[in-house]
Amino acid sequence: MWKTIRIDSKDGSAKSEAYTSAYQGLGGRSLIAQFLTDEVDASCDPLGSEAKIIFCTGMFAGSGLACTNRLSVGAKSPLTGGIKESNVGGNAATAFASHGIRSLIIENKPDDNDPMKFVVIHPDGAVTLEDASIYQGMNNYEFVDNMHQLYGNKTSVISIGVAGERLYKNSSLQVTEFGTNAPCRAAGRGGLGSVLGSKGIKGIVIQSAEGKSSLEYADKEKFLNIRNELNGMILESSKGNPFTLIGTASIVDGVGPAGIMPTKNFNGTISEKLDNIKSDKFMELVNRNGKNQHPCQAGCLVRCSNIINDREGNFLTGGFEYETIALCGPNCDIYDYEVLAKIDRMCDDIGLDTIETGATIAVCMEAGIIPWGDAEAAMGLYQQISDGTTLGNILGQGCEAAGKHLGAKRIPVCKGQAMAGYDPRGTKGTAFTYATSTMGADHTAGITLGPDDPSDTQEAIAASKTMQSVFAIADSMTCMMTMPVLGGHFDKVSELYNSLYGTAINPGDLFAAANRTLTLEKEFNTRAGWKPEDNIIPEFFRNEPLPSTGMTFDIPPEVLIREA
Ligand code: SF4
Q1: Ligand 1 touching residue 167 (CB < 6 A)
Q2: Residue 69 CB less than 6 A away from ligand 1
Q3: Which residue is closest in CA terms to ligand 1's atom 2?
Q4: pLDDT digit string, tens, across residues 444-462
Q5: pTM for the full model?
């Protein structure tokens, strides 16, 4: 039943292709690695006509297994120069699955003066490209409002704001969220919004299919039995789970006092203002007419998302997460949830990766462009990025480019991408992932932080490698929030897979498939020009001890290089 939609952004054609049997059983990240390997010259200009942007649903999309209607967006990243898979929740993958669309590929490039277009997938499955010239220059919330007026309030929308239109390397794609239908879920990392912008595509509008989708099962009864058992376990595990009870903002309570949360451009000092952003303060914000335990997609049983309202009770933002809080907050010496929620809304609206942009603003503060902790001035810089001022255009190119332009000495990036909300000196395994993963400094490529995060070098390296494989599995089939359950029951997951696809895989095969994905990604990056000596953790993490522990990052450079 699965199919691929292929869109030529130059001639405006769209065609549907039957799904090749060679790709059967792949999904999400594993499918993106395969498509990019097979179809894209890794040495291409990521914003040129040879580049492609690919949207793939996970291998269990549409099946009713909790949290598996995730969407992977993939392309050659203009930020890292390597392969990029950015994984996002929201309601787009559910709508894709209703049409039996496993992948949608946008290729080629329009002429420079062509007006932008948007893609519409209609209830009968027809795919059209529509003139978007009147929406050019619009940010995400206004664009989505327009699409909802045209196609109905519940229509799923993937879109870019002006950041993507301006081809900024810190630009995100935004996806509408279940329930609120607001564009508050971000495929943030890697600057992939600019790749959609380079195709002249403002957004993708997906109206759900008419009638019920007919997923084909090799053994439906067995599938439903295992699925229901796993869903029961996921639901049970959500009871008492801080990600459910509070959200990912709960991470602040652990990493903040430990000095692992980035503060003042990763200088690691623990501020006396930390209490202002702990969980109790987050819940005060949420409880002001808002809500947590919100599912970002239908069928999610973990429900780590939230709805944040302003003082007047109007919707302000959703999907307000730890990474945004850490990078746009303490990393800029800002400890005020009122401000941070507004920054989250601004970033979602403009279409900015909050991690990359927060890290960039902190570098600006260290360079003396604006004072530390000056929230108004920080919001002014976000606005300059939206307005496309001279400085805004520089900041839109990401933390490394902006830092170099400003002459900054401390630029917290690996492979050109800003580090997420975990200081390398406080979580050695995650730092190893930052330096060596196929995705650059991306915690979702293999975070090791947790109760058992090892400080021993060999154990940290081993933990990073395991987690890089585990996340490659997760990104191909589910939201990583389910992995504490599914990761402990790979026997049932492989049985579930077999009852869907008629295969005979075992848990070891899941890891083998993940490692094949990592190998394909690595090979792509090598062809794209990544070199072993690019596996670097910036020098200041080796020279400046983390104030809370006195630790520096001490995995020798030659060990990182050996992992390439
Ligand atoms: S656990 Fe959170 S991120 Fe994952 S699908 Fe549910 S709401 Fe979305």
Answers
A1: no
A2: no
A3: 304
A4: 999 999 989 999 999 999 9
A5: 0.97
